[in-house]
Amino acid sequence: MYIDFNNWKGAELGMMETSRLQEESCLQLVAMLKPEFNQDGDQYCFTYPSRSGIPHDCVQGFGETPMKAVYDFNHNFYNQKTKVDNE
To answer: Contacts from 74-81 at CB under 8 Å and sequence distance 24+?
Structure first.
């Protein structure tokens, strides 16, 4: 099947597929690490504990929906790991 991405419908399909792949990629990290999931007030939260036992060294992600919490968790995971690796 040929999809013309220059056409509005093809562009819409491309955006949907890109969004689905991004969501799938974020969910893979959560599935692999299995962070703790809970609801904190009106926010959902994923927490991956620190291996060193330092309480403030954990990775957390918050969001209004579970998927937004997944995106925030992924963002924080990669940014915190990069900072640690560069030090």
So the answer is: 74/26, 74/29, 74/30, 77/29, 77/33, 77/48
